[in-house]
Amino acid sequence: MEVAKRVAKNTGILYVQMGITVFMSLYTTRLVLAALGVEDFGIYNVVAGAISMLGFLNVAMTAASQRFMSFAQGKADVKKQKSIFNISLFLHFIIGILLVLILEIAGYFLFNGILKIDSERIEVAKIVYHIMVASTFFTINGVPYDAVINARENMLMVAILRVIEVTLKLLIALFITYSTQFDKLIIYGFLMAFIYLILYVIRLLYCHKKYDEVSINIIEGIDKPLLKEMTSFAGYSFLGSSSSIIANYGQAIVLNMFFGTVVNAAQGIAGQINGQLSVFANTMLKALNPVIAKSEGAGDRKFMLKASLVGSKLSFFLLVLFFVPMLIEMPYVFNLWIKEVPDYAIVFCRLALIRTLVEQLFLTLITAISAVGKIKHFQIYSSILNFAPILFSYLLFLMGYPPYYLYIVFIIFAIIRGGVIVFYANKYCELPITYFNKNIVMVCFNIFIIVFVLSTIPRYFIDEASFFRLLWVTIISFISYIFVVWFIGLKSKEREMLRNGIKNLKMFKR
Hints:
The protein is mainly alpha-helical. It is 87% helix and 0% strand. The chain is built from 18 helices and no strands. The chain has helices spanning 2-47, 49-74, 78-114, 122-141, 143-151, 155-178, 184-210, 224-259, 261-297, 301-337, 345-360, 363-372, 376-398, 405-429, 433-455, 457-461, 467-489, 492-509. The longest helix has 46 residues, at 2-47.
């Protein structure tokens, strides 16, 4: 019950933060697109995608470090926590240097024959790229501090950092909107990179003041057997997460090679919508993930698996709540949100949301596998499946297929990778495959289909897209969602757990 209260409290904090930041982020994107224009926005999306990529990499690497810190907290071993922090700091310092070198070498090839960028903007694009690469070192070195904050389940600090980040991005968007003295793309790139430096400094100062385990002693604070274990784990974890992120960035490069920067702008907008709507589900997982690792550290495999399965289902349900109205009324919403909607933005976004729904089913199982610690073979096969869609998409584009086939290929491989995740969760975490397929996959699929079909009813009575139709779609979607999830999606014990969670949130608000 104490764990449930803690998760409920942390989830409540993160949802308050989310309520503040989601609309700010969407409005920021609207301002940036209008200020830069479709062409420069597309250039930023493909060139500075390295930084967007690092945002995802930062989350993945934080999860890897957090696993060891949460595991040690589950064992109540303070000395080991200090050693873990110092090893994490040392490893990420090395990774930061290597990543900067790799990105600089990659930049030479990107700007000499791979990327299709107008000759008048190529030098500007290079400047933005180098600025962004310079900020990667601080981003990577902030990972150990992120891991400490998450392992401590300090979601208030996580929320504060996110609000600061989004507020600064909004101020930058307003600045470039009304600034005419300098090249807007260069200024935007420089100021965005500066944000990561500010956030790094805040994390560093806060953690050193707040937490005892954050004590830098690289020489004496490193346990050699633990260093070997963490290096192996971090190496395979880095292989899996970096391959996923490079593959996602590879989407932008492949699209740019065949279709140019305007299609990159459409991809960037689709990524923004998908990312902001996914926050609603991933916020809950952020509060749940430390619990999964701590449960395994305390030797409670049964509770760890239960938390993973419940988290998988509930996070999927949260996606359905926000995805369904958007999938149905996306053209109208885009026309309200953006003055000039790039070609393919709507179809890209719809397919991206479907891919996210598939991947959401298996996210907590990845956390469970990581908590157990046996990730070598899982990460190797995952890496192969991460890269494969880029190759297949490239071949399809050579044969003349339209750009949205890239998203279809990624959806197919997301399903295949889901099968691999379930296999290894069964092998290492004792996940009953039949139970997972019947009670998680099939239940989630049925919930989505029922809510989606019921939500399309207003379209049969109101032909023209309008705010009135959007309102009715949203209302029917919400009402059908509540009834279907409550009576079909949740078991009696889960309904009771949800009631207790709501009570705990009410107590927290008081």
